[in-house]
Amino acid sequence: MSHEHEHEHEILSEEDKAFIREKFEKEMIGTVPIKLLVSDGCEYCHLMEDLLRILADLSNGKIQLTIEEINEEYKNKLKLDKGPVILIGENEEIQYTGSPLGEEGWAFLETIVLASNKKHGLEDHADKLKNLNKKVRIETIVTPSCPYCPHAVLMANRIAIASEGKVVSDCVEAYEFPEIADKWNVTAVPTIVLSIEEPYSGQVFVVGLPREKQLIEAVTKAVSGE
Q1: Which residue segment(s) compose the domain that 149 sits in?
Q2: Using one digit for the tens of pLDDT, what is the confidence trace for 188-200?
Q3: With b meaning 16 or more CB within 10 Å and e meaning fewer, what string describes 195-224?
Q4: How does residue 3 score in pLDDT terms, banded at 50, 70 and 90?
Q5: Which residues contact 53 (CB under 8 A, 6 or more apart)?
């Protein structure tokens, strides 16, 4: 029997909760749908369920949380057969494949806020991103101890929000989903992979933290086939 259930009440300290409640109150505007997909034999599903229930509670109704078993439709759509998978936004444009723990935590909170207030800061590029003629997936492969990873993920998440669903940003936790890290021969994180539409047979764009303009240009070029 693992000890994780004994420590459930310690996921967030009272100070953490007070900070998050205040942040959500100040910065969230619209409601944000968040869906957690869980499965049997999933090591972190309970932890993510507890965390998201607490965050939903702290959001004063702004986070609309649903929790579902991963079904055939999602298995086919996401090419995954286990949880935890977190889908954020009206268009499920932000995905966390695996848990946003460790260094990823602050950027995950920031992402929820941005999905609510839409202050993505990419006004100069938004029209171009909204009008992409194909869907682009940005996969950012991370580990919880990598300090640069959340910066890369947040960049991709902002692009996804600005694109209103034309770009999907997927943060993949390499230890929980080693099969995805192996698929792209990941040896260092963050590794960013760009893919177009189905079946997302993509290529590694960069290892490390790209410049924002560089990533946006790569997304638009991917679609134009240059």
Answers
A1: 4-224
A2: 999 999 998 755 5
A3: bbeeebebeebbeeebeeeebbebbbebbe
A4: very low
A5: 65
Q: Please report where in the chains the tokens 């909760």 appear, as a residue.
A: 17
Q: What residues contact residue 74 under an 8 Å CB cut-off, 6+ apart?
A: 37, 80, 85
Using CA atoms, how far apart are residues 222 and 24, in angstroms rounded to an integer? 35
**pLDDT, tens digit (0-9, with 9 covering 90-100), for 45-93:** 999 999 999 999 999 999 999 999 999 999 998 989 999 999 999 999 9
Residue with tokens 């602050």: 106
Q: Please name which of 98, 63, 60 lies closest in space to residue 78, comparing C-alpha atoms.
A: 98
Residue 6 is given by DSSP the state G
Domain count, the chain: 1
Q: What is the pTM of this model?
A: 0.92
CATH code at 44? 3.40.30.80
């900070």: which residue's tokens?
19
